[in-house]
Amino acid sequence: xxxxxxxxxxxxxxxxxxxxxxxxxxxxxxxxxxxxxxxxxxxxxxxxxxxxxxxxxxxxxxxxxxxxxxxxxxxxxxxxxxxxxxxxxxxxxxxxxxxxxxxxxxxxxxxxxxxxxxxxxxxxxxxxxxxxxxxxxxxxxxxxxxxxxxxxxxxxxxxxxxxx
Length: 164
Fold this sequence. Notes:
The chain is mainly α. It has one domain (about 1-164). Helix content is about 75%, strand content about 0%. It contains 8 helices and no strands. Helix 7 (about 130-150) runs antiparallel to helix 8. The longest helix is centred in the N-terminal third of the chain and has 35 residues, at about 30-65. The protein is globular, with a radius of gyration of 17 Å. The relative contact order is 0.11. The model has no long low-confidence stretch (mean pLDDT about 90).
């Protein structure tokens, strides 16, 4: 439990240049701009990776019947709601960073977004709860828009899933 709480706090104490990349300054503005871009790319990678790990932890807890360690039950609807919340958190974070920082993360970044898309697609098509399915579809659509705008191999794969 201590390790999970430590994990949950990982993004709470980022160094100032990652907490707010736009606050970085240097005497040479061109240098400062380059550093800011690099810091945004790093921050974006950290945020997206963090949410991917959150999804993986919930998935593994469910698989091994350990959801009670996170204050959850092994109820499918409750776990779907948690996965929707995490996916929504990721989507909000992705929309809050400069688009070029998403692009800078390339295919590995797009693959992490795809993982959330797969979770959402699974919820939408495996749950009997129409409200959960509708929410998953709405988030999936928004995430697909982001991934598609990255023009990556991952967007082609997700488009193929939709065609099924």
